[in-house]
Design a protein that fits this description.
Layout (H helix, E strand, L loop, with lengths): L17 E2 L21 E8 L5 E3 L4 E2 L10 E2 L12 H9 L9 E21 L4 E21 L6 H9 L4 H8 L8 E6 L2 E12 L5 E14 L22 E12 L3 E12 L2 E7 L12 E8 L3 E12 L4 E12 L3 E4 L6 H4 L8 E13 H4 L7 E15 L1 E3 L2 E9 L1
């Protein structure tokens, strides 16, 4: 294409992020640049994190991400539920004790951080308000500074056996009996799921003193499973997308222009995630805690639906090409349900995992956009825009969250 070019500017910004249930924190309608319905557009969004994620359990905010589902991990109960002739059951017979709530309990301490994220995308108009929007995110995540805190006492022979056979050599026990399960630090850089949307935008001018215009947006699309995953041998491993599953988002936006400087609106997007068969670590006994799952098997996952709902207000000045958006966003991922692909897997037991429960997140989002050509009153063949945003969590459940502050650049031509 004769007039097509891409301007790429890497922005060094302070930022934060969301994870667990992991969903793409930058794949967000509130963070996308404003598109001209008659022009093509290329855009880049960047954000980075300088502090560690906070966990939101079912009842409290946590600094330690490894306490998201349980306060401590049981090394005794992790041996339960295996056949009598297995190596794990033989180890349990050597330990020959029960979990009293303290014996065999350890706490993993460490930091989780989604250090940065990028989104690369394009907007292509078709006709009569129809357009195509596609983009792909990229992330870097890490876990480090891992330590183990052993709560086992030294008062009885049972305590001593647990220390000698389990907690004092926990790392080697997990690797040997847990198919390579490790408590080592890890880091991963990879892309997320490729997103493709078909959108329709239409303006409805109003002849009223206050209400001047109504903007209606309807969109539907597909998330293609291109995301990379972190090895299931690591603690808190996850995919940068929908765990290899295809997904179908559909949503819309209603925006009301009130006078020359203020707009308010509502944006809603629901995403159906197609069922998928994946290899996961699952529970073999109801009393097991969820970081030390030794059994890994293929499972069929019936994913819960993702729900995004954003209430927003915009203050804008056409003269200076400036627009600031303030939004409240609610996110929910519904309960996941597992079905074992092996006859030896007990579906009732594996679905007692708290990590399968629904996840929620609450954010405040601020996004300021500057249209450089409009600000300079220039008549160029292209329209560069820059924007800076903050995505700040303040509550949630069953999820790890950080604050995001970032920015981006887009070119309309």
């Amino acid at each position: 294409m004769k007039n097509t070019f891409i301007l790429f500017i890497f922005l060094i910004v302070y930022s934060t992020t969301d994870a667990w249930y992991f969903y793409s924190p930058l794949r967000d309608q509130m963070l996308l640049p404003t598109f001209n319905p008659k022009q093509k557009s290329f855009f880049v969004i960047g954000a980075g994190s300088t502090h560690n994620a906070h966990g939101y359990s079912e009842h409290a905010k946590l600094d330690n991400p490894f306490m998201l589902w349980q306060n401590t991990e049981s090394t005794i109960n992790m041996l339960n539920g295996f056949s009598d002739n297995s190596l794990i059951s033989q180890l349990a017979q050597q330990v020959n004790t029960t979990d009293d709530g303290i014996r065999g309990h350890v706490r993993i301490n460490g930091n989780y951080q989604l250090t940065y994220g990028m989104v690369y995308g394009a907007h292509i108009p078709i006709s009569h308000g129809w357009s195509i929007i596609c983009f792909i995110p990229q992330y870097h995540a890490k876990i480090d500074h891992i330590t183990i805190q052993d709560f086992t006492l030294t008062q009885t022979a049972q305590d001593q056996r647990v220390k000698e056979l389990l907690t004092n050599q926990l790392s080697s026990v997990l690797k040997t009996y847990g198919n390579g399960l490790t408590i080592d630090s890890w880091s991963k850089t990879g892309i997320g799921d490729f997103s493709f949307y078909l959108a329709w935008d239409q303006h409805f001018p109003q002849q009223k003193p206050l209400l001047q215009n109504v903007l209606l947006n309807v969109r539907s699309g597909i998330h293609i499973p291109t995301a990379q995953s972190i090895s299931k041998e690591y603690l808190l491993s996850h995919s940068f997308g929908n765990e290899g599953a295809w997904a179908l988002p559909f949503g819309g936006q209603l925006k009301l222009d009130l006078g020359d400087y203020l707009s308010i609106g509502l944006d809603v997007e629901l995403t159906y995630i197609v069922n998928q068969t994946v290899k996961r670590r699952v529970k073999t006994a109801t009393e097991q805690t969820e970081l030390f799952l030794l059994y890994k098997t293929k499972t069929h996952v019936d994913f819960g639906m993702n729900q995004h709902c954003s209430l927003f207000a915009q203050v804008h000045s056409k003269k200076y090409g400036l627009k600031t958006t303030l939004a409240y966003q609610y996110f929910k991922h519904g309960d996941d349900t597992l079905s074992g692909c092996s006859l030896t897997t007990d579906n009732q037991i594996i679905n007692t995992a708290r990590s399968l429960h629904d996840s929620t997140a609450h954010h405040i989002i601020s996004n300021t956009e500057l249209d450089i050509a409009q600000t300079c009153d220039a008549h160029w063949n292209f329209e560069p825009k820059v924007h800076f945003f903050a995505k700040i969590p303040f509550n949630g459940k069953n999820i790890l969250l950080n604050t995001f502050i970032g920015g981006g650049v887009s070119i309309n031509f």
